[in-house]
Amino acid sequence: MQVSKEAVLLAQRRAELIELCALQRGFLAEEVAALKTPFGGAGVGGFVAANKPVVLAVAGVALGLAVTRPKRVLKLAAAGLSLWKVAQKVLPLLTRPNAG
């Protein structure tokens, strides 16, 4: 049985795309790993200690908004919680080893 030229080209293109996907997945895993330790490995505690005035100012503004505009803050909190849940489900998928 003879394989058509188009089938050969499609198989080559598929192999190229699989290789490209593997490369992109590796780059994405590196970026996700960098995002998991955004403060040079010091974690959130190190960031808070280094930027205490800024963190306190942001916390004060957030508290002020929560007191003066509770509906908007609740909507924002709900959106943030949804985003957090999605991120918790997606991040493990991005960091898994290449299955293909």
Order of helices and strands: HHHH
Structural class: mainly alpha
* Total separate domains: 1
Percent strand = under 5%
Rg over CA atoms:
23 Å
The overall pLDDT, averaged over residues, is: 83
Protein name: DUF883 family protein
Organism: Massilia solisilvae
Note down, in words, how this protein is organized.
83% of the residues lie in helices and 0% in strands. By secondary structure, the chain is mainly alpha-helical. It has one domain (5-95). Helix 3 crosses helix 4.
Ordered list of secondary-structure elements with their pairings:
Blueprint: H1 5-36, H2 43-50, H3 52-68, H4 70-95
Protein name: DUF883 family protein
Organism: Massilia solisilvae
Labels describing this entry:
single chain, 100 residues, mainly alpha, 4 helices, 0% strand
Summarize this entry quickly.
By secondary structure, this protein is mainly alpha-helical. The protein has helices spanning 5-36, 43-50, 52-68, 70-95. The chain is built from four helices and no strands.
